[in-house]
Amino acid sequence: MGTNTEVAMAKRKKRDEPQTTGQQLRSLIKSARDIMRKDKGLNGDLDRLPLLTWIMFLKFLDDMERMREDEAALSGKSYRPLIDDPYRWRDWAAEEGGITGPELLAFINQDEAVGPDGKRRAGLFAYLRGLESPTGKGREEVVANVFRGVANRMESGYLLRDVINKGKPGRAAVVVPNGTLFGDGVCARIKEELLKSYNLHTVVRLPNGVFSPYTLIPTNLLFFDRSGPTREIWYYEIPLPEGRKNYTKTKPMQYEEFADCVAWWSKRKQNDQAWKIKAADLLKYDEDGRLISCNLDLKNPNSAEALEHRPPEELVGEIIEKEQRILEIMQEIQTELGEKNR
Question: What is the pLDDT of residues 148-190, one digit of tens each?
Fold first, then answer.
């Protein structure tokens, strides 16, 4: 049996480990059910689970909408939102201090009510049930059909707000070409907004020709969430397999080639394929505070190509630093051997 100290350390280590998506979801559901048990309008899980389902549906739907909006913006395309303001999750539910109490219940339940923007309009469920697409066969009809069979049974708008506040920050990933990473103008302003409004924590640089024959343009995977603004970005470059110069339609990239990246993901260290940079170093402004550029197209500093373009004095300094470290290690070994021989 371990000592009390060992047990405590083991518990602390387990507590400090990041939760998986499944663990986060289970924790969210448990916390929400504990709150819902206090509401007099709900009678057991038969009432609680449908309520939790429509809340999570709207949260995840808005996460998907945000991802589609970002993809369209990065590609320079327009996007028609599925749900209008102020009925999106971000408009009435995302802020913890948002609409609550009787006003929240009225906005959700009634055919007409005062919305979170202070204007009288259709209630949330009434609006969602009335969604229609131009073709009559779009995503709007799917959402409308879902909410035609939904009712909110919670009697306390304050407890309902507590349940809504349990929502976790969303996560997303987009595929973008290299041009998006170094583009200026509107593209730079979009990237500035991305870094300031989201946590762009990882950029995975894919090998050339991943989407061949449709395009030979190098592409990247951008991973971000809503945990806060970006402070630092990890880059991971997946190299082409030895002996390959490109991918083709008949010889595409294989899932197994992501193995090293997947193994690195949860235990991040800088190596020949991975490096990180501070987000503040990417945003360049002029004297008047106007954005000049936001270049995310950073080459692997450990690659042969990068070494060729580095200043000679920088290369010499790095070589001297490494040689000094080698000498220190050799001296440590020499000291260790000398003590053993005494």
Answer: 878 899 999 999 999 998 765 566 777 777 877 877 776 788 8
CB 327 within 8 A of CB 300: no
Q: Which two tokens stand for residue 275?
A: 């490096």
Selecting from 3.10.180.10, 3.10.20.90, 3.30.1360.120, 3.40.50.150, what CATH number does the domain 171-300 have? 3.40.50.150
Contact 81, 69 (CB under 8 A): yes
Tokens of 119: 């204007």
Question: Residues with Cβ < 8 Å from 65, sequence gap 6 or more?
Answer: 81, 82, 83, 88
How far apart are alpha carbons 164 and 182 in whole angstroms?
A: 38
Contact status, residue 218 vs residue 206, Cβ threshold 8 Å: yes
Look at residue 147 and give its three-state secondary structure: helix
CATH fold group of domain 20-164: Ferritin (1.20.1260)
C-alpha span between 7 and 131 (Å, rounded): 55
pTM value is 0.51
